[in-house]
Structure formats: structure tokens, C-alpha cells
Amino acid sequence: MAKTCWLERDKRKRKTVEKYAKLRAELKEKGDYVGLSMLPRDASPTRLINRCRVSGRRRAFIRRFQMSRMTFRELASQGMIPGVTKSSW
């Protein structure tokens, strides 16, 4: 499990991105890059990191299932993820 401070930081970044999304879109449309640079750094969506919903891990993230590869494999082998079956040939 990821440390709580990392998870809280990620939540805070997501809130900031959401808060400034409309303003960023307007400034980009106008081409006001000076105004964009005045916004907080965390207002940019590129600073968000995909994290596993279960464990909080950020590496080996599978977007389709919103979880890391280890959590995915564990839950898939237990049959907890609908529509996922172990392949065999």
C-alpha cells in the first residue's frame, strides 16, 4: 500500500486540476500563455499520476481496470473481475 501522504497529495492535485480546468481552457483558447504560467503548477493535468484504486501503486498501471498489474492478477485469478478469464492453449 502506498503511503497515505502520497495518496493525499494525489487527491489534492486532482482537486486543483478540477478547480482550474475551466480557467485553463479559456486562457489556452485566447493564447494567453503568460496567464497560464501564473496559475499554480499543480493546475496542469500532466502532473497527475495514475494510481491503483486498490493498492495505490503507480507503476505497472492498467488503465482499463484502474489497477496495478499485481492487484489485477491477484483479483483475476480469484475470479473477482467480471469478464476476465485465464487463457490456456
TrEMBL record:
Binds 16S rRNA, required for the assembly of 30S particles and may also be responsible for determining the conformation of the 16S rRNA at the A site. It holds the Pfam family Ribosomal_S14. Gene3D superfamilies: 30s Ribosomal Protein S14, Chain N. GO terms for cellular component: ribosome. Keywords: Ribonucleoprotein, Ribosomal protein, RNA-binding, rRNA-binding. InterPro entries: Ribosomal_uS14, Ribosomal_uS14_bac/plastid, Ribosomal_uS14_CS, Ribosomal_uS14_sf. This is Small ribosomal subunit protein uS14. Belongs to the universal ribosomal protein uS14 family. Part of the 30S ribosomal subunit. Contacts proteins S3 and S10.
